[in-house]
Design a protein that fits this description.
Blueprint: H1 2-9, H2 14-46, H3 49-68, H4 73-79, H5 86-118, H6 123-130, H7 132-137, H8 143-149, H9 154-178, H10 182-202, H11 214-245, H12 251-264, H13 266-285, H14 292-327, H15 335-352, H16 356-361, H17 365-390, H18 392-405, H19 407-415, H20 422-442, H21 444-448
Helix pairs in contact: 2-9, 2-13, 3-5, 3-6, 3-11, 3-12, 4-8, 5-6, 9-10, 11-17, 12-15, 13-14, 14-15, 14-20, 15-18, 15-20, 17-18
Length: 452
């Protein structure tokens, strides 16, 4: 048995590295989420739901700033033929630092308007300090992207988990002493500092230094302009619900919603991690358009990706309410039906998740932007209509409905790269929607509590 496992995971072929990378991504993701859940359980007993609501609003603004300034530096390193050259990497690193400085200054500038918009004075103090995390992250080494480019993820996974453990210990200790939302902010900053330092010291690769090559910078900007526009749309997709709900529900309700989303979106977060770290590099190494063999390998990788996320998502649909009732105190009981309904809404996103890599691996950031923009527009329409008519129930369903709406466009775009696999998509959709839909029917009375 030991020899069989060693044979399966050893070797330097693309397939073996993809297999090892997938295993490491799952281990890293699973470990990270277990640690985050343990931290969350401790913190919910030390802090009030309002603290999590405040942090949800802070994260909306920080994620928005990050997405509104993203020019796809990491993606460029992964897909660009020059992605291993020191001049290319150091220019990218210099641009990344400049972006971090811009993000922090923008967070400072938005602090007072944000506090006024949501009528929460604390935001004017929290945002400038939380924004320091973007400044610190700007100094992250390009060795991270290089490791992803070559599917070498072992050390990266260990560093991430180690920094998270230390950060959790510090955050919980601060929460015990301060009993304030500041514990979450300061703990996050310390975790980011640890990550930056450890990645620089431990990961193999070139030592980054400030450098500017005009040709490289121009190329990064050309590729990144549609990434930038796409991430503006990505903000609406990933953070739009919290931004909108912040104007409709209390901080306490927003905090409970955030707890439910933390657990309910775990399968989707796993799928996105696997897509970014494994499937995107595979599209670069094994372009489906080059041969039928490549196309079969990519299709198999995508099917395995969907299967892995379904294995996590479907049990959550049935056990979500029991998990919340077991893990959290009665103040968070409404998070249970949120987990169940999120499991249903996530199915289309889980099935279609792997297609974005086909566009980016081929340098087609323009179509990637168009797809994200249309998805964002559809999601915002569903979100506003859903919240006004059905409250949290409508908001939760919006992302899944948007993914279904733009699926035909997605298939047309990836077909030019021979990456479409619609028959598998339809089978997975039927299976996922059927099983999670039945779970929603079983818990219908609890789910109805989400409708005002």
């Amino acid at each position: 048995m030991k020899n069989r496992l060693r044979s399966t995971f050893s070797g330097d072929s693309v397939g073996k590295r993809a297999l090892r990378g997938s295993a490491l991504t799952v281990v890293g993701f699973g470990g990270s989420k277990v640690l985050r859940l343990a931290s969350n359980l401790l913190l919910t007993r030390l802090l009030f739901p309002e603290a999590f609501g405040l942090m949800a609003l802070v994260q909306v603004f920080m994620a928005g700033l990050a997405m509104f300034s993203d020019i796809g530096i990491k993606t460029s390193i992964i897909q660009n033929p020059r992605g291993d050259e020191p001049e290319f990497l150091n220019t990218a690193w210099t641009m990344q630092i400049a972006r971090g400085v811009f993000l922090w200054l923008a967070a400072c500038a938005l602090a007072l308007p944000a506090a006024s918009l949501y009528d929460e004075p604390m935001l004017s103090q929290l945002l400038p300090v939380a924004g320091l995390s973007a400044l610190i992250a700007g100094f992250r080494t390009t060795k991270i992207a290089t490791a992803n480019r070559h599917l070498m993820l072992g050390r990266q996974t260990v560093i991430d988990l180690g920094a998270q453990v230390v950060g959790i210990i510090i955050t919980v200790s601060l929460a015990y002493m301060l009993r304030s939302v500041w514990a979450l902010v300061i703990g996050g900053l310390i975790s980011e500092v640890l990550r930056v330092v450890l990645f620089h010291l431990i990961l193999p690769g070139i030592r980054n230094r400030l450098y500017w090559e005009r040709e490289t910078a121009s190329g990064l900007i050309r590729f990144g302009k549609y990434i930038f526009l796409g991430t503006v749309a990505g903000f609406a997709i990933n953070q739009g619900d919290r931004a909108v709900l912040g104007g409709y529900v209390s901080l306490s309700e927003l905090g409970v919603y955030s707890i439910g989303m933390l657990l309910g979106t775990m399968p989707l977060m796993l799928g996105m991690a696997l897509n970014g770290k494994i499937v995107l590099p595979l599209y670069r190494m094994k372009p489906p358009a080059e041969s039928m063999s490549n196309r079969r390998q990519i299709s198999r990788a995508r099917r395995l990706l969907v299967t892995a996320t379904f294995i996590l998502n479907i049990p959550l649909a049935y056990a979500g309410i029991a998990l919340i009732e077991t893990l959290y105190d009665p103040r968070y009981v409404l998070a249970g039906p949120i987990v169940v309904l999120v499991s249903l809404a996530a199915v289309p996103q889980l099935v279609f998740n792997g297609y974005g890599g086909a566009l980016l691996a081929n340098g087609d950031s323009k179509r990637h932007f168009i797809l994200l923009s249309c998805t964002a527009a559809a999601q915002l329409i569903y979100l506003f209509v859903g919240v006004n008519w059905y409250g949290l129930f409508g908001a939760i369903l919006a992302p899944g409905l948007a993914a279904l709406t733009t699926y035909p466009m997605r298939i047309v775009f990836v077909a030019r790269y021979k990456a479409n696999d619609h028959w598998s998509d339809l089978r997975f959709l039927a299976l996922g929607l059927g099983l999670t839909g039945f779970a929603c029917w079983l818990h219908l009375d609890d789910i109805m509590a989400l409708i005002p």
